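Q: Start with the shorter request: fold the first protein.
A: Done. Sequence, then structure:
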Amino acid sequence: MKNIIQFLFTLFIYSFFSLSALGATSVTFWHMEGVPHRVDRIQTLIDEFNAANPGIEVKQEVQNWGEIYAKAPASVAAGTSPEILVGIPDFTPILAEMGAAQPVEDFVAELDSKYSFYQKALDQYTYNGHTWAVPLWNMAISIWYRKSAFENAGISPPKTWSELKAAAKALTKDGVYGIGLPGNKQLYTDQTIYSFMVNSGASEIYNSDGTLRFDNSGTVSAYEVYKDLYQYSAPDAANWTWGEAEACFASKACAMILQFTVISTYDSQAGGDASDLGVIQIPYADGMESSAGTVSYVNSAMIMTKDKEKMEASKKFLSFLMEPGNYGRFINMEPGLFLPITEAGSQDSTFWDDPVAVKYKSQIETMLDNSTRGSLFGFTNGNTFTSISSISAQNLLSQTLQLAIIDGKDAASAVSEGQSIMTEAIE
């Protein structure tokens, strides 16, 4: 009899929780942060949220940056899109125009009243009368170098392009490449060449009427200096993705690289001497100090459902991530890469108390400073031209670059051809 009662009780409990799970509002969370420790950190936060909200079940699904520009629209067409999708500003317009990304200005205003978003974070997702995504974190490309390598070569960190070229040449010796620059047709190369465009006064590739002005003297100068510098990069740089540049730096085979961060690989693979790790803003074209800046953009969360219950559940989860005590842990899934985009977040103890953040505090502070001078591809005088998505999705910046560094065309010819390719893509 006792065994029967125990069996029935167990069956009841199992049935109860099974029915509860079936009744839970499910939220699928797509993101592209596939590095295992990032996935683990996100899962920890998801588990905490799910435990505190038994009526909601959040599930993460890791995607690939190389595939997401095609996969996300395809999922919308197939009716299999996630409730939440992490993206970047030049990607959001595609999904907004499809009616998939939902306006979230009221929700963002609510979060803003609590945590105070930086205005640049909001500007990147506000156009056509709506805010299309919830800002999550910022990123900014910088120059990373070893202080000891510069000291041994008797040179100072560069500020101008001429100083950068001189430094790359001086540092290229004894099996070391002076600078690591990608040459592959991919997002990393797009963003690296764009950082040179920013610093030649060519950050805005659109005219105010939405027509392209990619083919201009500033763009040509940026492609020229990239081609000049590329001779000091590693021979396999034409095949680099994100990780190869960091590996080249960590192994001391590259004296300098342009990257959002190298802290994680440097700390784990290169001895982690924080006092020897230098970071500076991207050098600018000679005489162009006033336009000095970098590539800086905010990653955000688009809400991709019109279902009221799923939308509210998605907002609740995103609110959870933004809360003090959670937010710092969230963006420190990769300390020294993701930067806070709220005033509250920049003061969150869970951001600054991370052991890696403590060790590389000065470098992170420099990154934060660099990010304040960041520019965003596709923005002109505060306007967002949604056709930029077609250019970004096809990596047309790096395709144009390959015409110069691989096919051997002069920069002016490559840029002129790039203008034609881009014009055709957006028409």
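Q: Next, the second protein, separately.
A: Sequence, then structure:
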Amino acid sequence: MNENVIKAALLGFGTVGTGVYKVLKNQEKEMSAKIGCKVEIKKILVRNIDKAAAKIEDASLLTSQWDEIINDPEIEIVIELMGGINPAKEYILSALKAGKHVVSANKDLIAVHGHELLDAAHESKVDFLFEAAVAGGIPIIRPLKQCLAGNHMTEVMGIVNGTTNFILTKMTQDGMEFKDALALATELGYAEADPTADIEGLDAGRKVAILASVAFNSRVVFDDVYIEGITKITAKDIKYAKEMGCDIKLLGVAKNTEEGIEAYVCPMLIPSSHPLASVNDSYNAVFVNGDAVENAMFYGRGAGELPTASAVVGDLFDIARNIKADCCGRIGCTCYKELPVKKMADTYNRYFMRLIVEDRCGVLAEMTAVFAKYGVSVAQIIQKAFRAEGSAEVVVITAKVREGDFRTAMEELSGRSSVRKVSSMLRVYGE
């Protein structure tokens, strides 16, 4: 075995797998100088060898048999890019237990079973790295675990789904309605044929679970994250938000409070002056706050063949350096705390709402009386003309209030005869 060559195997040869292969080819000449050795792909696990052969120079690398990888002592690193829970989980666990290092981009798996995988890596004294599982090519997992380890992190939030950000950008800049912006995103390849995971916030929710766990050193799983998607956002919501000095973004938010961790994904109004408001199209950005660093933002491509491959290869090179230095397994699971995760009803936010009400004297006073009953303070209010005779449209932004109290107030208000429809109800980021 050439001690200056480390052999790896790819599991999956789709968009990201192909990107990893390309990046490694591009790095061949400088790799030894950069990391002290070469990393070579020895095997690529695929379902359809004939289909995959068209994308590669040397088809002998391809296999459909996992046994050829797990039983090969020369293969030291397994790169899992299959996605999904099974068989990815089975393959990763067996690789770790066999003493092979693993790199993964599998947010679905890590958001649910990350603890089990990290424990298996610890027991075998090998590395399990997953930088590409969150925000594509943007470095965020390693900075949180290493560069920012001297901080007590209080918040990590951001735009972590490029598809929804593209849709909302088109709705904001071109006045599109949601269905038209989604159709364009599908046509341009930003949205999958089944966009549910993106537009319903599930993809972002998995990333928030991972980010919160890493940032706050306490385990947060996917089921802990409250999730709302963007399917109900209208061009009118965006227009009125602009009038109030805000943009609407699908935000993943995790906060470390004295009462516990808050973790949620939902469309939110964010002040147009905030750095995240200028993150458009398919770009991602993650905003962090720590007691020492204060505020920092990480910005870039959150998906795609080469950006995601960049993060995967970064992990691969890190492991290669560790192997050469005989110091693998240095940084494993960092969830040494057991902090509670708050219910959404116990979180505090500001709220934006659009209501259709009777157009008569006393209606606004009636509304504010109901709000006051539950401790909801109105910060901004705009009355708009409405085409239906005898009706008016009211747009309200509240001060910060406990969500459970706000929802109780809205239930009572919705039951009043003077309120004909609650058109929209969105959270507002910030104080």
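Q: Describe the second briefly.
A: The mean pLDDT is 95. The chain has 14 helices and 17 strands.
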